[in-house]
Amino acid sequence: MPVSDPNKLMTKADKLTKLSLTRWSADWRNATLLYEEAASLFRVAKKNEKAKEAFEKASKGQEMLSSPWDAAKHMESAAALAKELGNWNEVTDFYRRASELYMECGRPQPASDALAKAARALEDAMPEAAVQMYNDASAILEEDGKEQMAFDLYRAATSVYVKLEKYSDAASSLLQLGLAADKCSATNSQCKAYLGAIIVYLYAHDFKQAEKCYNDCSQVDAFLRSDQNRCARKLLSAYTEGDVEEIKRVVQSSTVSNLDHVVIKLARKLPTGDVSALKTDAGKEEEEPLDENDLT
User: Fold this and answer.
1) Cα(254)–Cα(264) distance, rounded to whole angstroms?
2) What residues contact 3, with CB distance under 8 A and at least 6 apart?
3) How many C-beta atoms lie closer than 10 Å to residue 206's C-beta?
4) CB 55 within 8 A of CB 77
5) With contact defined as beta carbons under 8 Å apart, do 219 and 179 qualify?
6) Transmembrane segments in this chain: where (predicted)?
7) Does pTM top 0.85 for this prediction?
8) What pLDDT is stored for residue 275 in this prediction?
9) What's the CA gap between 162 and 210, in Å, rounded?
């Protein structure tokens, strides 16, 4: 039996969807079957551009047939082919559309997964778009009460922010991870995320923000009693003392070695910048300023 010509299948399908004097309504059911068959044949033949177009049309067909699940699946196939072709804007659009279609079916987890796939595909080519996708994917899971499933997405977002040298955003991403962990009582992940955020601020040489972050996180009882808290306290104390050797010693500890890889890499480079200035500032703060009344 001869293999069908996918180009002819596409032409036939297109005709079924166009209205004319003799065709008053589109035959989406048969057209969609033809688009699906053509898409598979093009993909096998490694004709990615044509396969992508066929899957896009098959997706539209399933939408017209009120089958958003199948429409989403075809849209993901089109997105994967767009990735192969390096069409990054289409990767963004197709995966986002797939996510919307999954949400129409009331399926938040595949909707989040579609955005995460887009983010991973875009990390090198469009990191800003990638990080937005990771954050949107996390938001869908959190709204569905599946915070634990968002942990890896927050970690991935943190990693991209660090590559972009957006350290404040990286720290915020870790703090969001800590908050998500708090909601599902994942204490260890929560404490590691908080220490990670403090380290990121120190790497960015923002001691004041690191200190504020430590004080805020220490309001959480689980963190206050943790090894990560003790490690953070030692680290901040070493900074205040301007003790470079102690900073280097603390970042080699097992507590730091158990953090996420991206945070460990930053920690091992501490201290960045001149910490002796912090010691001078701390000394000035300890000195009691003279009151004018003392001079009279």
Assistant:
1) 11
2) 41
3) 17
4) yes
5) no
6) none
7) yes
8) 80
9) 16
